[in-house]
Amino acid sequence: MPGCRSLLKQIKKRKRRKTHKSTTKNPKRKHQDFDISEDGFSLKGQNYGVQPLGNFYLSSSPHNSRNTGLGNIQTLTDELVLDILGFLDGTHLGILSTVSKSFYVFCNQEPLWRNLVLESCSENDEDGFLFKGSWKSTFVGKQNPCFDVSKVGSLGLKVKDFYSDYLFQSWLCANLEMKGEWLDRDNIVRRRGISVEEFVSGFEEPNRPVLLEGCLGDWPALEKWDRDYLVKVCGDARFSVGPVRMKLEDYFTYSDQAQEERPLYLFDPKFADKVPKLDRDYKVPAYFNEDLFSVLGDERPDYRWIIIGPAGSGSSFHIDPNSTSAWNAVVKGSKKWVLFPPDVVPPGVHPSSDGAEVACPVSITEWFMNFYESTKTWKKKPVECVCKAGEVIFVPNGWWHLVINLEDSIAITQNFVSRRNLLNVMEFLKRPNASTLVSGTRDRVNLHDKFRNAIEASFPGTIEKLVLEAEKKKAEQEKPSFWDSVKDSNSGAFKFSF
Questions:
Q1: Contact partners, residue 129, CB within 8 Å, separation at least 6
Q2: Which of 174, 157, 133 shows the shortest CA–CA distance to 11?
Q3: What integer is the mean pLDDT of 433-462?
Q4: How many Å separate Cα 282 from the centre of its chain?
Q5: Whole-Å CA distances, 353 to 96, 347, 350
Q6: Given pLDDT bands bounded at 50, 70 and 90, which one contains residue 279?
Q7: Looking at residue 484, what is its pLDDT?
Q8: CA dihedral 138, 246, 393, 298 (to 10 degrees)
Q9: Strand partners, 426
Q10: Is the separation of the CB atoms in 390 and 213 below 8 Å?
Q11: Confidence check: pLDDT of 23 > 60
Q12: Which of 59-63, 108-112, 418-422 has the lowest mean pLDDT?
């Protein structure tokens, strides 16, 4: 971990740069100020003077107050301490925070209070929650609506000589903007005005990503979808935000104030049913019109989403569900994309052997801090780009991808199955563990048979034809070339037979 003074200079430099440059970020977003002291970092009301552990070895203090305040459990890792505290309710967390300064720091970590708030909200909870500036204040306000939460967590207590890499990095990831060197690399193929046939032959069939420009010109959403319009047309409709449902106006209240390592992301697959007007504000680009999952009608898996999130929100590395391909169109804002081909697992990412689970860094910023630099020396480097408003990225099936919003962003994404990818999807759906891998549908067990039967009914002979074409292509790839067939492998010369 770098020394805290160098990191502080880096962050302050970026904050000054942000003040002077023009930006499309919501001007209502509030950022908290940094304090400089001999003790190192603190972010008002959140960091409590926590410093990276490396500073302890440069300090004249003989002890780490983190240990003295934890007593006998000081030997546990900070991550394990927080896991244990996660079993406590709000009342007991509050009581424990008065035991020592060290427990005060641990018990006021925002993820603990975030979990308590989200756990108290069910999917059908019509009240949801209204964010009150911090997760602790939000929890108190939800439990006691009449209580004035303006003073919750405002003591500003700062603990001296408290060193923890784990807590410090969590705070740093929540406040550090994307570095320029994380955004500079842009090596994706870009195309404008190509035909559908050119897209299919150049990108969909060879399973290559591409960024398409200028194909959303007829979308009313590009002009209409600002915050005021969306709040007005969506009204009281509630959208999926992580494990809860929220009105769009309440979500914007949250996203304006939240400054955390993993901001909640609005990711709703039923938006068009909830607000049909949104469905009329966009249409599928011509390149993606063929979508064979549509033969399943109402039984098809979830396939389209509206995505809204503040800067720093996004999706960590994953492969899209059901072996589908996808397109993602940015309506407002911009997104950084990092993609790896199916045969290259991103650094720091550990998928289970069956692909059902993926372990990866806690946050996207943490991945960039700890792993991004190493990819510059890889033989197979990732495909990267910044996708801006009005642009569409094609994500081929099986590709790993990470996405982070660089500013307040709105996007539409759809997963689809075309003839070029049909056999891959069919193979995926009949895996022995398909019931655990298939997503977005009520019937995980019988989806393969239902899909196959529906394809045969709608497009007779299509599957058989595609299988024959795939076998022919495979045979051609395995067939030795002319020079391989005439070369004498034993002598290293050539042998001609007549």
A1: 117, 120, 121, 138, 142, 244, 246, 250
A2: 174
A3: 88
A4: 23
A5: 41, 16, 9
A6: very high
A7: 62
A8: 150
A9: none
A10: yes
A11: no
A12: 59-63
Residue 379, burial from CB neighbour count under 10 angstroms (0-12, 13-18, 19+) = exposed
Please indicate, yes or no, whether the overall pTM of this predicted structure exceeds 0.70: yes
Tokens of 195: 């035909």
**Pick from 187, 182, 199, 207: which is nearest to 343 by CA?**
207
Residue of 284 and 57 predicted with greater confidence? 284
pLDDT digits (tens, 9 = 90+) for 208-225: 999 999 999 999 999 999
Three-state secondary structure of the chain: CCCHHHHHHHHHHHHHHHHHCCCCCCCCCCCCCEEEECCEEEECCCCCCCECHHHHHHCCCCCCHHHHHHHHHHHCCHHHHHHHHCCCCHHHHHHHCCCCHHHHHHHCCHHHHHHHHHHCCCCCCCCCCCCCCCHHHHHHHHHCCCCCHHHCCCCCCCCCCCECHHHHHHHHHHHCCCCHHHHCCCCCCEEECCCHHHHHHHHHCCCCCEEEECCCCCCCHHHHCCHHHHHHHHCCCEEEECCEEEEHHHHHHHHHHCCCCCCCCEEECCHHHHCHHHHCCCCCCHHHCCCHHHHHHHHCCCCEEEEEECCCCEEEEECCHHHCEEEEEEEECEEEEEEECCCCCCCCCEECCCCCCEECCCCHHHHHHHCHHHHHHCCCCCEEEEEECCEEEEECCCCEEEEEECCCEEEEEEEECCCCCHHHHHHHHCCCCHHHHCCCCCCCCCHHHHHHHHHHHHCCCHHHHHHHHHHHHHHHHHCCCHHHHHECCCCCCECCCC
**128-129-133 Cα angle (round to 5):** 165
Mean pLDDT, rounded, for 21-28: 36
CA–chain centroid gap for 175, Å, is 17
**Beta 40-43 vs 34-37: how paired, if at all?**
antiparallel
Within 10 Å of residue 144's Cβ, how many Cβ atoms?
10
Report the percentage of the chain scoring pLDDT > 90: 63
Which letter, b or e, does each residue of 435-462 get, where b requires 16 or more Cβ atoms within 10 Å of its Cβ? eebbebbeebeebbebbeebbeeeeeee
Q: Maximum CA pair distance of the chain? A: 98
